[in-house]
TrEMBL record:
Superkingdom classification of source: Eukaryota
Transmembrane segments: 160-180
InterPro entries to which the protein is assigned, alphabetical: GOSR2/Membrin/Bos1
Keyword set, alphabetical order: Acetylation, Coiled coil, Endoplasmic reticulum, Golgi apparatus, Membrane, Protein transport, Transmembrane, Transmembrane helix, Transport
Functional note: Involved in transport of proteins from the cis/medial-Golgi to the trans-Golgi network.
Source organism: Furnarius figulus
Topology of the protein relative to the lipid bilayer: Single-pass type IV membrane protein
Keyword Ion transport belongs to the record: no
Protein name (record): Golgi SNAP receptor complex member 2
Family per similarity comment: Belongs to the GOSR2 family.
SUPFAM superfamilies found in the cross-reference section: SNARE fusion complex
Subcellular location: Endoplasmic reticulum membrane; Golgi apparatus, cis-Golgi network membrane
Length: 181
């Protein structure tokens, strides 16, 4: 009853504040700002009071609910085979079994992932070895090609040296035969 009366008075104050707000807008411009500020302060105070009333009502409701629950617990009689005290073991066992199977499945996935990763590592080592051998062969072929080019170039130069030497020898022999005979 007291709470309802307090709520009615707070509602009455809110309606009076709304009228005050309308009246404050009709004040002369130099007093209007001060009047609005006072009305806003009063609104804030009333809202604070209403919040305090709601908090009080909420605490009272919780206290009454706790007392009701306490009375229900004290009035209740428990028996050894009460259906409310049974534990659903079957559901718990099924839940545990499904968790265990999920755990095993994850272990198998991790194991197969580890095996795949190890296989990839082995393949990488094999490919690195093959790559190294291919580079070695390419280097050997590259050296062989370079050596072959040098030999061909040297043979070409030797051919010109031989032809040049033969020409010089022929000229010397011709000159010797010409001047000595």
């Amino acid at each position: 009853v007291v709470e309802n009366e307090i709520q009615a008075r707070i509602d009455n104050i809110f309606s009076n504040l709304e009228r005050l707000e309308i009246l404050s807008s009709k004040e002369p411009p130099n007093k209007r700002q001060n009047a609005k500020l006072r009305v806003d302060q009063l609104k804030y105070d009333v809202q604070h009071l209403q919040t305090a009333l709601r908090n009080f009502q909420h605490r009272r409701y919780l206290r009454e609910q706790q007392e009701r629950q306490r009375e229900e617990l004290l009035a209740r009689t428990f028996t050894t085979n009460d259906s409310d005290t049974t534990i659903p073991i079957d559901e718990t066992l099924q839940y545990n079994e499904s968790l265990q199977s999920a755990h095993r499945g994850m272990d198998e996935l991790i194991g197969s992932g580890t095996n795949i990763l190890q296989g990839l590592r082995d393949q990488r080592v094999t490919l690195k070895g093959t790559h190294k051998k291919i580079l070695d062969v390419a280097n050997m072929l590259g050296l062989s090609n370079t050596v072959m080019r040098l030999i061909e170039k040297r043979a070409f130069q030797d051919k010109f040296l031989m032809l040049g030497g033969m020409a010089v020898t022929c000229v010397i022999m011709f000159l010797v035969v010409q001047y000595l005979t």
